[in-house]
Design goal:
- Strands 4-3-6-1-2-5 form a six-stranded antiparallel beta sheet.
- Helix 2 links the parallel strand 7 and strand 8.
- The longest helix has 13 residues.
- The protein has 236 residues and is α/β, with parallel strands linked by helices.
């Protein structure tokens, strides 16, 4: 399908929000992703990005982490830089949505979301969908970032009283006025988990590979049943 860029805004120093529209309605579930077709030199590359809002038939929001060149002579991220440099009105080809990173249905479990970085996109979509339900389940969201300025959608999450939002910063200087949680996000989540009934939780995890690996291991060590854990191993 062809998507047209409607608007974009800088969410954090490294993450851009892009909003596209489609002339044809699309049915999909929160947590799914689209496969963008990126022209590069003489070939077409595929890059996957999760939709960052609950489903809308013709409007799609994505959070793109723009990857700079890591060193001299090494090109920047092809897909992210192509998309972030598009102008309003530009068109791009996409396929999908795809993926099974979706909300658990038909239970009364506490919904636990653990994320970091651009992994916020599908988690935000899942949270929005759950809170839009007629009787939303208890929701708690642990989100990790390095610095306070990298907390995506902070105001939105803090405003909703139905969501227990717990941001965690991994790099805090003594001069900072941050009074919240510090360290690794999965460690803060595990401390909370220690007081919970592990059989009445559904856990959703998305973030950078090291964070994802550490979180899944901690959940297994704590005895959270594997069938109650869902994760999105997103790519760049």
């Amino acid at each position: 399908m062809a998507l047209t860029l409607d608007s974009k805004r800088q969410l954090t120093p490294s993450i851009m929000e892009l909003t596209f529209v489609s002339s044809e309605p699309v049915n999909y579930e929160a947590g799914q992703f689209m496969q963008f077709r990126i022209p590069h030199l003489n070939e077409i590359l595929s890059r996957h990005y999760s939709v960052a809002t609950r489903p809308h038939p013709t409007r799609f929001v994505f959070n793109i982490r723009q990857l700079p060149s890591p060193s001299e002579g090494v090109p920047p991220g092809v897909g992210s830089n192509y998309l972030c440099n598009l102008k309003a009105g530009a068109r791009v080809d996409a396929v999908g949505p795809f993926g099974d990173f979706q909300l658990a249905k038909q239970n009364s479990h506490t919904q636990v979301f653990i994320g970091g970085g651009a992994g916020i996109a599908p988690l935000r979509a899942l949270i929005q969908s759950e809170l839009a339900a007629g009787s939303p389940r208890r929701c708690i969201f642990f989100y990790g970032a390095r610095y306070e300025k990298e907390l995506c959608y902070r105001d939105e999450f803090e405003r909703d009283e139905r969501l227990n939002y717990i941001p965690v910063l991994s790099e805090v200087a003594k001069s900072d006025e941050w009074a919240g949680h510090t360290g690794f996000v999965h460690e803060t989540a595990m401390k909370w988990l220690a007081d919970e009934n592990k059989n009445t939780l559904d856990v959703y995890v998305c973030g950078p590979p090291p964070m994802l690996k550490a979180t899944l291991k901690s959940l297994a060590d704590f005895g959270v049943p594997r069938e109650q854990v869902r994760f999105d191993d997103f790519g760049i």
